[in-house]
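Lab notebook, page 48
Experiment: co-folding of the full assembly
Goal: obtain a model of how the components sit together before planning crosslinking
Operator: M.T.
Materials (sequences as entered):
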Amino acid sequence: MANKSVLFKIKRQASPTSEAHWEEFELAWRSGLNVISLFMEVAINPVTRDGKPTTPINYDSNCLEEVCGSCAMLINGKARMACSALVDNLEQPLTIEPFSKFPVLRDLQVDRTVLFENLKTIKAWVPIDGTYALGDGPRMVPKLQEQAYQLSQCMSCCCCMEACPQFNESTGFVGAATIAQARLFNMHPTGKVLKDERLQALMGDGGIQECGYAQNCVEVCPKDIPLTRSISDVSGDVMKKAILDFFRT
Amino acid sequence: MATTTPRIIIVGGGLAGLSAAIKVAEAGAKVDLFSLVPVKRSHSVCAQGGINSAKNLKGEGDSTWAHFDDTVYGGDFLANQAPVKQMCEMGPGIIDLLDRMGVPFSRTDEGLLDFRRFGGTLFHRTAFAGATTGQQLLYALDEQVRRFESEGKVKKYEYWEFLSAVLDSQGVCRGICAMDLRSMEVTTFPADAVLIATGGVGAIFGKSTNSVVCTGSAQGSLYQQGAAYGNGEMIQVHPTCIPGEDKLRLMSESARGEGGRVWVPKNPNETRPGKQVPEGDRWYFLEDKYPKYGNLVPRDIATREIHEVVYDKGLGIQGQPMVYLDLSHIDRATLDRKLGGILDIYEKFVGDDPHEVPMKIFPGMHYTMGGLWVDSDQMTNIKGLYAIGECDYSIHGANRLGANSLLSCIYAGFVAGPNAVKYAKSLAAAPENLASSFENEKKRQVEKNNQLLNNQGTENPFKLWRELGEVMSRNVTVRRYNDRLKETDVKLVEFLERYKNVDLSDKSMWSNQSFLFTRQLQNMLQLARVITQGAFLRNESRGSHYKPDFPERDDENFLKTTKAYFAPDVDEPRFEWEPVDISLIKPRPRRYDTK
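Observation: model returned without errors.
Model output:
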């Protein structure tokens, strides 16, 4: 169709302390467009819908194929990755905004360091002795590998945290991603040596008890990670530990 | 220097950079790790199919020597052999270590590592984690580095851009000059040694399978500071990519490793959708021509065959530059278990289900075999400056075998890390005027920034970049002709001229991405000339470098490494050639139809 176009508006902000404002754009449609390619077109011709010169959109991106976790944002109100947001599957005019629960840096870029800090707190690693040669790794049955692999696909995009009603400043909730990572390392033959410490870390303020079972997380996770299953599993472990700790003191 | 803790800077947080960081931290030295993006978002995350090592767990009699021979042969004898042999020998140990770190490698029923077959070999030696192996390896290293970070041994500078090396008055590397991508402040950082791990140069070709950060800007900057660039003309075009508006998405070689078949309809005017074309009307052209290797011939060969079928024989699907890669004959459960991640990518971005219908693919720029020249310790010709991973030229010769990249990155990081610490401990004291070297470099970079920001021009840098990508993809990839290479270099000179007239619509001094990109573009243009002129000067065909006018390999005249140096007086590369170490395996004709 000769005159088919794509209409979208973006919530922009020049710096962390600036006022946010909306800008509208209109581009010629062609097949196969995703939200990232819309931004790329704006960079080549940075002009708003009413002909006002503007600047290219600032946004985090890298892989453009939904494995790196960079381009998370709100598109038509939903937390999702911009690279896999195909224009033809979305209602127009597209509404594009930065995540609302993370500090905005500029335009669609937000600060997601909180998740990486959480991963340190729960010691999200396998504590190997050293990188010198120690022979084969532990055997692992395929079923366990498949479970681990599922959890291991978390790309730290923070969609689950954005969607979670409990993830906010007043609760300080760690969010589903961190809990699922704890489960991952607790199921590893070597990683589980730190299980108690991980569970301990999830028992304090902002810990696993903050989860309200809204199930928003598992709905938005781009990698279909079994988040609610993981929270439920780890909750069970936390409960057992709390009881044992009580009897040990 | 012996009493103070060595300080090592690593630029780039992909597999190579993180591998080096781990070794350096373990050796007790301090690591400053710089990355454009949070390290777990590095381009290594995109690697899909697997990582090679001759663990010989399939009862095939595989050996590290066979792996070595396959690699040297696959590279068409252009690589210096000693480091390649060392890499293959370290392969099994590297897999074991990554396994211990928790990489969820796919398993056999006995609970051992599973291995699949990849291009250019007859052995099953590719370990894999579903179809997202690069991601899983990267995450394991990222986790280990996070542990070191929590122990104060590694400091990460994420969202920082490397601008240049700081060289003292004797030309020794003493640190780097870098820019905070948010505040855009330029700062210098001292170090006893610097490791560059900045990946490939996909952005120079416009659309590629590479990530957004893969511009080659760091390499381009160092080349202009005097670093030699090796075999720049060796660029790998992967045979099976999914065309897209924003990038070319890789369809892993593992799809063929698990039984995927490449074909086109025999009839150029075929109108039936792929699924409905009966067997008798299909031409499985790779299986036909290469009975032994079939669909798993090395990438350069598969790419050329697909190009020939489409452009010379006119058999592309419905006249389009596309061929079929068919997995629909394999059961759903197996496909999900072994290839889940990549099939998801196809379905998500194209909308068709590859379990049910054949995929449509076409070759696309994918990997950079060439890179900064290094010696066997991974040190460049600049003392104290190392290069590791895809950004170094050393392992893959004229063509890289699938699943060797992940191995080569970890290998290089593991070798260079300890070497850098050793070098740092024996480093001679810096010249008296070292402080002024830092000041001058910072001043130079700040001036560059100011010039760019204050430039009054009319050229949109993103448009200029699109033009660069188009001409490089058209003339400097699968088939190279000297007249078109010459035209391309003329065009590049024109782009460099037009670059002086670039206009930044965004002059903000806060998190200005278009400023960052425009800065990188200048380095990309300089490196593009190295690639193009290197291709022009190599009058033979070898590996991925194919000239229809010189279709044979010419060992007598060209069994040598292309080395490009920047000549500032004429603002273009000058070339030298270096003999290749072929002491372990004598070159033989490279044929996959007979072997």
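Interpretation: The mean pLDDT of chain A is 96.
Next step: discuss with group before ordering constructs.
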